[in-house]
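User: Could you go from structure to sequence for me? I need the amino acid at each position, not a summary. Structure tokens:
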């Protein structure tokens, strides 16, 4: 059974993803979700969404250079963008969370909600951000971005 914090991360991710898909401010989507209370959006999920919004420019400035060479946030699947933003917030601005836990939780969300390649990519990008000293630009991840894997002719996926 998922922990309360894992459920809260999923709720926060739902809000961030929905806001992007609908072209709405995340805090408006959050307010609507809280008012509907189905499913309930607890304090930790609220803090995550508010934190991602408050640090959005800084988060994107950390994520962008950590992406594989010649990739941009816009090219990633929307769910992966939201997961990377949430994970980066927890790594750099969240309180009381260990690096390994932040990365593991983000990878778990990617495994549950995105492509087969996404967990490894999310892991690589967030690990790059975690390794970079505060104030330094993260190095690009060395994994293939999701949904853009090209196999040689005749090769089959593993």
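Assistant: Here is the amino acid at each position, in order:
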């Amino acid at each position: 059974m998922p922990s309360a914090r894992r459920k809260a991360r999923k709720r926060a991710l739902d809000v961030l993803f929905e806001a992007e898909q609908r072209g709405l401010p995340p805090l408006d989507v959050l307010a609507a979700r809280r008012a509907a209370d189905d499913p309930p959006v607890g304090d930790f999920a609220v803090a995550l969404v508010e934190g991602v919004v408050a640090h959005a420019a800084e988060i994107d400035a950390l994520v962008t250079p950590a992406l594989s060479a010649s990739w941009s946030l816009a090219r990633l699947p929307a769910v992966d963008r939201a997961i990377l933003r949430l994970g980066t917030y927890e790594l750099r601005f969240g309180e009381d969370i260990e690096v390994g836990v932040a990365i593991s939780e983000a990878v778990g969300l990617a495994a549950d909600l995105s492509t087969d390649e996404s967990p490894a990519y999310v892991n690589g990008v967030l690990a790059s951000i975690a390794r970079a000293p505060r104030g330094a630009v993260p190095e690009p991840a060395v994994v293939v971005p999701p949904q853009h894997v090209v196999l040689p002719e005749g090769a089959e996926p593993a």
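One structural detail worth keeping in mind: The domain at 4-131 is CATH 1.10.940.10 (N-utilizing Substance Protein B Homolog; Chain A).
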